[in-house]
C-alpha cells in the first residue's frame, strides 16, 4: 500500500472525522474585552484536504447566516484551511486544525488555528502583493477584501487567523428582496400582442438572469 507524506494520507485510508474541541481557550471568541460566557462551536479536524468539504458543511449549518453570506464564509474558511495544511505543521502526518465559530451580536466570527510554522524562520501570515506568476497566495488577500474584519494571533507556538462577517440586518435583507422582485418585474416581457414571443429568437438574443 502506497504511503504518502505531508498533507496527504495513506491510499485507501479515510481521514479522521472531526471531533468536538474541548479546550476552552480554543473555543473562546477573540474580543477586545474577553467574555468568559462566549464559548463557540469548535471542531478539531485532520489536516488533510479531504476534510475541507466536511468542514464547510458543518460551518454552514452552525453559522445561521442567509445563503449568500454563508457561501462567502465557506469560501474564506476553505482558503484559510488550505493555507494551514500547506504552510504549517498541521499539514504533516497526524496534524490537525482547530476551527471555531462564534455567533456574536450582529456578526459571526471564525478562527482557524494551526500547529505553527514548519520552520522557525517562516514568516507570519501576511497579505502578499499580487504576482501573476505565482501559484496560490490569494487566500489572505481574499479574506482582507471580503471579510468585515480579520487578524492573526500567535500563542503557544500556534498560529490563528480569524475573520468576522457582519450579519445582514432585517432591513437590508428586505430591501435586497424588494430589489430582486423589482428587477424581475422590469425584465419580464409586457403582456399582450405587442410583445411577440418570437422577438428574442429572431434577433438571436439569449435569455439571461443577469449577474448573480
From TrEMBL:
SMART domains: HATPase_c. InterPro entries: Anti-sigma-factor_SerPK, HATPase_C_sf, HATPase_dom. Gene3D superfamilies: Histidine kinase-like ATPase, C-terminal domain (3.30.565.10). Residues 68-169 form the Histidine kinase/HSP90-like ATPase domain. Pfam families: HATPase_c_2. One of its GO terms (molecular function) is ATP binding. Keywords: ATP-binding, Kinase, Nucleotide-binding, Serine/threonine-protein kinase, Transferase. This is ATP-binding protein.
Amino acid at each position: 500500500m502506497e504511503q504518502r507524506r505531508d498533507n496527504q494520507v495513506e491510499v485507501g485510508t479515510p481521514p479522521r472525522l472531526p471531533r468536538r474541541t474541548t479546550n476552552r481557550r480554543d473555543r473562546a471568541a477573540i474580543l477586545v474585552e474577553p467574555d468568559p460566557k462566549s464559548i463557540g462551536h469548535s471542531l478539531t479536524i485532520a489536516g488533510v484536504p479531504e476534510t475541507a468539504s466536511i468542514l464547510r458543511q458543518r460551518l454552514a449549518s452552525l453559522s445561521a447566516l442567509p445563503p449568500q453570506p454563508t457561501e462567502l464564509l465557506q469560501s474564506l474558511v476553505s482558503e484559510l484551511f488550505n493555507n494551514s495544511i500547506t504552510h504549517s505543521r498541521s499539514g504533516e502526518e497526524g496534524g490537525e486544525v482547530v476551527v471555531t465559530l462564534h455567533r456574536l451580536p450582529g456578526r459571526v466570527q471564525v478562527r482557524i488555528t494551526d500547529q505553527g510554522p514548519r520552520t522557525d524562520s517562516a514568516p507570519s501570515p501576511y497579505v502578499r502583493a499580487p504576482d501573476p506568476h505565482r501559484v496560490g497566495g490569494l487566500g489572505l488577500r481574499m479574506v482582507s477584501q471580503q471579510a468585515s474584519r480579520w487578524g492573526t494571533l500567535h500563542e503557544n507556538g500556534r498560529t490563528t487567523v480569524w475573520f468576522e462577517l457582519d450579519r445582514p440586518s432585517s432591513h437590508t435583507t428586505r430591501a435586497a428582496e424588494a430589489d430582486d422582485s423589482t428587477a424581475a418585474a422590469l425584465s419580464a416581457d409586457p403582456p399582450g400582442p405587442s410583445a411577440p414571443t418570437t422577438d428574442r429568437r429572431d434577433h438571436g438574443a439569449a435569455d439571461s438572469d443577469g449577474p448573480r
